[in-house]
Amino acid sequence: MTPAIRYGKRTDRALSMWVKLARAYAVFSNKSTEHIRSFGLTEGQFGALEALGHKGPLTLGELCEKQLVSGGNMTVVVDNLERQGLVRRVRGSRDRRVITIHLTGKGKELFKQIFGRHARYVAELASVLTVDEQEQLGRLLRKLGTSLRPRSSHAMRADGMPPG
């Protein structure tokens, strides 16, 4: 579908890329979320279990950083996981203000049961692309993401465009 209004080749190309990226992400994410929900977990709960399962005990702040969510959001996630007996909070022995989140035995077992299944599901979703295409897409997305990371909203011009 050709847009009714043109903004120039460079801009039209970038907009087209953005729409394709957004649509592909939305579909991929929805499929992944459906699969995660089949385990009786929310995305946030699964993400926390995944981070703890791979990285070991983490503070609430570290979990927030890994999951790109706010502290209040992660507190609710951890509260719910704790109620299910999947994680426990441990206060620091040197600094009692520091609380580290640990997987319980039940949490470790659940992680072992579901993460491999979900990883294989994601691999199946991605299998429409060849191995080379998956690697190339990964490199391109990393390049795009890392190039945008240092920019901040206050670095934008008055018209909303990045400087330069």
Q: Can I get a quick summary?
A:
With 164 residues, this protein is mainly alpha-helical. Helix content is 63%, strand content 7%. The two termini are 31 Å apart.
- The overall pLDDT, averaged over residues, is 88
Could you list the spans in which at least 5 consecutive residues all have pLDDT below 50? none
Can you summarize the main beta sheet? 3 strands, antiparallel
Total number of beta strands: 3
Shape from CA axes?
A: elongated
What Rg do the Cα atoms give?
Answer: 20 Å
The secondary structure category is: mainly alpha
Determine the CATH superfamily. Winged helix-like DNA-binding domain superfamily/Winged helix DNA-binding domain
Task: Please estimate the helix content.
Answer: 55-70%
CATH topology: Arc Repressor Mutant, subunit A
CATH class: Mainly Alpha
Overview of the structural elements:
The chain has 164 residues and is mainly alpha-helical. The chain has a single domain, classed as Winged helix-like DNA-binding domain superfamily/Winged helix DNA-binding domain (Arc Repressor Mutant, subunit A), CATH 1.10.10. Helix content is 63%, strand content 7%. Strands 1-3-2 form a three-stranded antiparallel beta sheet. A hairpin with a 7-residue loop joins strand 2 (87-91) and strand 3. It is elongated and about 60 Å long. The two termini are 31 Å apart. The mean pLDDT is 88.
